[in-house]
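Hey L., structure's done. Input below.
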Amino acid sequence: MKIRIKIIYFSKLFVFLLRIFIYGGYEISEGVMCDFVKLNYSSKNENDMQWESMPVAGLSPGKLCRHNACIYNKRMYVFGGKKNVSNNSNDIFFYDFEYCLWIKIFIGSNDIKPKKVDSFSLNLDLTHETIIVFGGFYGKFTNNLFFFHLNENRWEKIVVKGPSPDKRAGHCAIIYKDNSLIVSGGGDFERKFNDLWILNLNELIWLEIDTNERVYKVKKKEYSVL
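Output:
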């Protein structure tokens, strides 16, 4: 069904199979949303380039914003985020594009897993077949580092010896040359960062890259977590 999407914030957008997908987000009048839509940008006919709702079945993540996601083996993995103004999530789901089916990955109550967090970074490490989650906000800012092992469906909390990035949310992170995680920016209630850190994914050591100015103060009203 062709639809018109609303003006949304804090959603997750990604490209897969020559299509743009968006899941969740926040709209001012509706609040946190659970819309899952796609746009086929490969069509030569402009009339075909319209947003469509995705077919869904199974147990979906529901309403989410400030979450994150990645694609692995024709599946979209979705983790964390805000379910509403006061509640976060630490659940992990995947959407199977072949069967148009949502599946929740159940983690034991006594097993290791991240806090119910939002505004974190999430990256896919294909070399080690893991999802890397760093930082975020769960009532407190954090610099926790977790690996989700895709072939085992389990979380591992990574303890790195030596210096590490300050606790933060709203930062950016990328995988570089299959063996490094680069983290930059973000902030907390008092500061915004312009530092740059590299995590060696083989040796699990953080290295800070020297920059001229590391942080600057911001007014409390200038930064908020929704």
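Residues 218-226 have pLDDT under 50 and may be disordered. The longest strand covers residues 31-40.

-- N.
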